[in-house]
Amino acid sequence: MKMHIKLLTVSIAASLACFSTTSALAGGHTEVEALRAQIEAMTKRLDQLEKQSANTEKIAVAAEEKAQMASQSSANKGIQSGNDNVRVSLSGHVNRGVMWADDGEKDNLYHVDNDASSTRMRIIGEADVTDDLTVGTAIEVQFESNSTAKVSQLDETASTDSFTQRRLEVFFDNKQYGKLWIGQGWNASEGSSEVDLSGTALAGYSDMSVLAGAILFRDSGGSLTMTNVGSVFNNMDGSGRADRIRYDTPAFGGFVLSAGVIEKDAWDAAMNYTADYDGTQVAGAIAYSDPSSDTVDSQVNGSVSVRLHGGLNLTLAAGEESATSGPDPSFYYAKLGYQTRMNNFGTTSFSIDYNVAEDVDVAGDEATGVGLQLVQKIDNWSTEAYFGWRTYELDRVGSDLQDINAFLAGARIKF
After folding, report:
1. Stretch 380-384: mean pLDDT, rounded?
2. In this structure, which CATH number among 1.10.285.10, 3.30.450.20, 2.40.160.10, 3.40.190.150 belongs to the domain 79-414?
3. Which of 135, 275, 350, 353 has the least C-beta neighbours within 10 A?
């Protein structure tokens, strides 16, 4: 465009120069001066047009660059909210494996979803009202086909209710006054029996029913009973998830107090603690629950976990229900673990655990579980590969039951 204008300017100027020379010879000095003035005015006008053209070109280039940047920014954001004031994040994981179980007479291989951390997806929306106040929403669902807690000798493809809701809630988080939760989600006492710094919870933790929970015991004659692993163990982990209103205080000295009013006239309260003492990590929780149940008046439970700077760790948990009649069920749990970095993939965690549950299903029952766990992190893949083994034994008055052994191997990949 600039070149065209310059050529036009030169052509016009040359023509006028020739014309002015001819006219000057014919008409005299006055006409020559007038023609020169016209040429100068036209040249200035053409210079102005050239500058305008250059500015127009710059504006067009800038607009194109801005559009490209906006397109790139939109691509980088990925998930976007319909409201510019709200941050939206999509996350979750898939957790699949294979489980082998031996009931003393027969063994089976199952393709499973690990109930220790079921396959799930969540959407979190957050908006900062002020520097201190954040409001948000949470929607979380799980897709658990063939749960490790549900497959059994009678049902190798336990896919009923594989799609379930976990969290449907709103929350208000204030740095000075604490956090208020409304809707379906974690109760105040949820997780209070499962504080665990070992790094091996994917392969096994205080809840014995997670691995082979539906596998049935056999009697000494080889016949299946109607008693499964999950019915004789209970880690009494608070009130789980439910529709409720929950409040958490701000952290003070590592402590957070929580309380909630739950559907069906139930309620619970808990105290959590986390701290780091020069590389030694400590975490713990204690909780009280009133389930408003016909069989349980109340429940007290808790857990504590300590991991030393060198990787050695210890986890303890216990709980007791106050039954409306009969003996009070209880459990005790211990895990000894070690974390190290043996390779370039990530942290490697080992552990061994032991659980005793009494009077959970039938008065006089004593169920014991012993397990080994291994979890290998693969940081660059956002993956954890794991292996777990458990053996279960049930002593029941008047019965002679065979032990159950279960193995689990799998991987959890996060997104």
Report:
1. 98
2. 2.40.160.10
3. 275
